[in-house]
Amino acid sequence: xxxxxxxxxxxxxxxxxxxxxxxxxxxxxxxxxxxxxxxxxxxxxxxxxxxxxxxxxxxxxxxxxxxxxxxxxxxxxxxxxxxxxxxxxxxxxxxxxxxxxxxxxxxxxxxxxxxxxxxxxxxxxxxxxxxxxxxxxxxxxxxxxxxxxxxxxxxxxxxxxxxxxxxxxxxxxxxxxxxxxxxxxxxxxxxxxxxxxxxxxxxxxxxxxxxxxxxxxxxxxxxxxxxxxxxxxxxxxxxxxxxxxxxxxxxxxxxxxxxxxxxxxxxxxxxxxxxxxxxxxxxxxxxxxxxxxxxxxxxxxxxxxxxxxxxxx
Amino acid sequence: xxxxxxxxxxxxxxxxxxxxxxxxxxxxxxxxxxxxxxxxxxxxxxxxxxxxxxxxxxxxxxxxxxxxxxxxxxxxxxxxxxxxxxxxxxxxxxxxxxxxxxxxxxxxxxxxxxxxxxxxxxxxxxxxxxxxxxxxxxxxxxxxxxxxxxxxxxxxxxxxxxxxxxxxxxxxxxxxxxxxxxxxxxxxxxxxxxxxxxxxxxxxxxxxxxxxxxxxxxxxxxxxxxxxxxxxxxxxxxxxxxxxxxxxxxxxxxxxxxxxxxxxxxxxxxxxxxxxxxxxxxxxxxxxxxxxxxxxxxxxxxxxxxxxxxxxxxxxxxxxxxxxxxxxxxxxxxxxxxxxxxxxx
Amino acid sequence: xxxxxxxxxxxxxxxxxxxxxxxxxxxxxxxxxxxxxxxxxxxxxxxxxxxxxxxxxxxxxxxxxxxxxxxxxxxxxxxxxxxxxxxxxxxxxxxxxxxxxxxxxxxxxxxxxxxxxxxxxxxxxxxxxxxxxxxxxxxxxxxxxxxxxxxxxxxxxxxxxxxxxxxxxxxxxxxxxxxxxxxxxxxxxxxxxxxxxxxxxxxxxxxxxxxxxxxxxxxxxxxxxxxxxxxxxxxxxxxxxxxxxxxxxxxxxxxxxxxxxxxxxxxxxxxxxxxxxxxxxxxxxxxxxxxxxxxxxxxxxxxxxxxxxxxxxxxxxxxxxxxxxxxxxxxxxxxxxxxxxxxxxxxxxxxxxxxxxxxxxxxxxxxxxxxxxxxxxxxxxxxxxxxxxxxxxxxxxxxxxxxxxxxxxxxxxxxxxxxxxxxxxxxxxxxxxxxxxxxxxxxxxxxxxxxxxxxxxxxxxxxxxxxxxxxxxxxxxxxxxxxxxxxxxxxxxxxxxxxxxxxxxxxxxxxxxxxxxxxxxxxxxxxxxxxxxxxxxxxxxxxxxxxxxxxxxxxxxxxxxxxxxxxxxxxxxxxxxxxxxxxxxxxxxxxxx
Lengths: 313, 345, 593
Prior knowledge:
- Helix content of chain A is 72%, strand content 1%.
- Chain A is an all-alpha fold and 313 residues long.
- In chain A, strands 1-2 form a two-stranded antiparallel sheet.
- In chain A, strand 1 and strand 2 form a beta hairpin.
- Residues 1-15 of chain A have low confidence and may be disordered.
- By secondary structure, chain B is mostly helical.
- In chain B, helix 8 packs across helix 14 (279-292), helix 9 (149-163) crosses helix 11 (203-240) and helix 14 (279-292) packs across helix 15 (298-306).
- The radius of gyration of chain B is 25 Å and the shape is flat.
- The termini of chain B are close together.
- Chain C has 593 residues and is α+β, with helices and mostly antiparallel strands.
- Helix content of chain C is 30%, strand content 20%.
- Chain C contains 16 helices and 23 strands.
- Chain C has a 7-stranded mixed beta sheet, sandwiched between helices. In chain C, strands 14-20-13-17-15-16 form a 6-stranded mixed beta sheet.
- In chain C, strand 18 and strand 19 (454-456) form a beta hairpin.
- The radius of gyration of chain C is 28 Å and the shape is globular.
- Mean pLDDT of chain C is 86; it is low at 1-14 and 550-561.
- The A-C interface holds A 73-75, 81-82, 95-96, 169, 251, 255-256, 268-276 and C 223-226, 228-229, 232, 243-246, 248-250, 311, 314, 380, 383, 386-387, 390-391, 394, 407.
């Protein structure tokens, strides 16, 4: 982590034996990045998680090439309902005769997009509110802190149900609902981190030197807070994907899109259990478990690398 | 937030000694309770306004397919279309009033909810107790044997359980243990809370209840214990790096005693606090698992209320769940504060 | 057979054990109060708890005696005299007399809340009297055939008298309340556990004879899967309203008989033929092209009802034609010239009518003002409806229309329809044996109305308005002769078929299954292939009987093995716990700090 204030030996214009302050900072950043990478690669579980995520990302991106979208069309389904896996349908068919394999791969797109977008929203809001509530000591900061606490206390699923019912069923609703209900966790973490960072002496010095609120927050607090936020983000994505699956299972998902959650909802509502259609239940479920587990492992590995107090699991 | 500090006269007169200790707890408790009350008021207001935005004409749906007197219709509509402020005041005065009817059940919402509370309490009570017990033990053992085989296996298992949607786990258990697959016997019931006609207070009735409770409780226990185990483990790992434990070991205490008498009790506090913070997670689990097992509790009621949607019922359930979680959090705060004086300032 | 758990019910001789039939249903009653309940399950229970003056025959829904042994209209059809049976008693022992009949009818006629459910049956009755204990005389304003089809439940005066108009809405009529569910019907409700089950015992003194079974239990399942599993395991004996896939999974199971019964419901693609209020003021934003009957006929040719039955219903249904389902074969009209599925014909009709095909494949209005862009609404509660709409959208695109599908809740759709802000939507109706209600939905007077500046939806959802049709509607409402009325009703169906406010897509089947190794003697209504349960009557419940044989082994086994396992598991847990606890109790000397 570079120290913008510099050490006492450097003059404010910053030259030390031929190298400029900027070059030194860049060299230090590069070295820290290499350390980070080496540390991360040493976490085998994290690497495995990353590999799984890579696989799913590739599948999701290549979905239109692998399976033509006509395979999702109910009116053009060729199989019989709930057919067992066979040479023609590797993972069997759903209740409309559509191939489960195609549904699962296309479903990956929705599940991943929702997870990532909702997390982005949550991360942005959470970081802003977290830094704001720690930085501004007056009533504004207190208000932000109250709002964070309030959202933290309210149980997620009932709130999500209420919001989804009011806003109507669509992809945007699900993303908004998950984003709006998961930012408090990030905010809390960011707030704690910001408080720790702001207690450091060099920040006092920056204030004395005339750095305004905005300068302090962006140039000092943010870079120090971001790494842990990043680690927290991967864990948030995992939770977002689980949330999307749950909301879709309850019937609040977009009726026009296939996601792993809507597949589980369809399986549940169309007699998959009593028909013994295990392929219809296992396929989307295992995908959810794999992706969520992968994100969790990556997140935990990041935490270990970024927080020197934690030792590996 | 110390009320004492705000009053300079009191602060000056009170000897320093008295400001710490039991007095601190009292004020802390008061401030936390007020904060919880404020949260609840906010929830009630939020609840009211959120649902007024809902589109749709519930009255017309109610009367479709039946010949309703136009006057009666007008009456029903008038009740629904009173000015917003009037509706707001009557709601605020008594959110638990008997006058609010569920459109789906044609009974007061709080009556409908009242019927369904005990199955949820039973299921959640059994599951969280089992999960807390097993999960905490698992977490302690994993943390203590960190890096060794037990830890690796148990962390792997708990992480996988944590990644599973609990309702999916429930459906799998249903297929395997209720329908029966391969050599697994289908010996558990497919749903419900008891067989009809059985006297619930007899021995047979209690056993029947336990038989029905088995699978849903197993599902929720597995889902919750993953979280509790991971939390306990990380708290204990953090604790174990503390200096005072080195001292204890230097005194000659066995590992097990160091763990049992020092590390674990101190690690329990953040664990308990984190567990209570995640009570929302417990509630979410109840909703989906009750649906899968047709367990007639509040969770399944929510699922039914979504179809419609039965707005009044959803509102009431949301209020009830929020209330429960706020109260639980308050109790946790007070419990932790009672045990750890550092928290009180 | 009663569900017995292990030792709780030792195997007795077969005739000492009560014979109880357990039925699985997917929804609890919303209310046991006949003035409040709406859902089909509630009406099924009212039919068991209460009697009515007349019933619908099992063969073909024609009127049969109920509490009224016979009835006689006067010459001018304005006075009806009913002869009430003797010796009928309520479940609390009080006798049922004409006073109770008069009380019930007066209550509905004079009440406001009571009108909601039963108002349309008594709309024309001006006076009800009881000259003696076994006779009821009703006076009507116009001769009306509904006097022979009176499913109004007869309530005990001595119980309902104390519940006045303002309290009736809150009266639950639950069996544990004072006087709750007291009726004269073939079964008595003894227990209702909300959302779990309802338990009935047979009424051995019922005027139609004692039922062959001793008791009836309805178990509520919120999920089809668990209901099907319960049927397989013998926890229930009958399952009703199954979905196609679940139904299929029960097909070849030993001991289970599956029935795809013809039903009295239909689904339709409804069109906005010109949304307007009942006074003629146009409302909404429906597409003007749908006001042209040629366009609607072209659409009728573009809907392949057979494919819809195959794909949306899994084959369990009949392609639809007119608005009175084919189940009612006395009233149903099979059109002489049905609309065949023929996309070329549809295209030809549109070409001839001047809807030219644009360069983008979408047709334009004859005056070139706008393309044929239609919004079709599907209901989120109905997956089969959504499937139908997807197919229909595909076909309509092939005849030059641009379709936008929107999925909304039924609640929202009702409001959208009421405001006329749609082009087409998919929904369905369940048609009563008396066609009056269904036919009324197409009259001019059934369109939306405005009150206090707000538009309210009424029954008409296509906004069809035809004075000729209205005339026939008024006529059939006064024809007491069954054959004459049937003729009028068929004429009305033909008018509707020609004018196509609806394209009736299919008459869906009611999928039921029962344990043929336990019960036999179900009575379909109408014979031979109608529904076994959820009929307009209680024929199956009253006539079904246990298959002779030893059934104790079947379910006692299920309960018994579970108990054994529970006990063993419990013992293991206790032993394990004890072992672990004892191990940790050992205290070596060096544990003292």
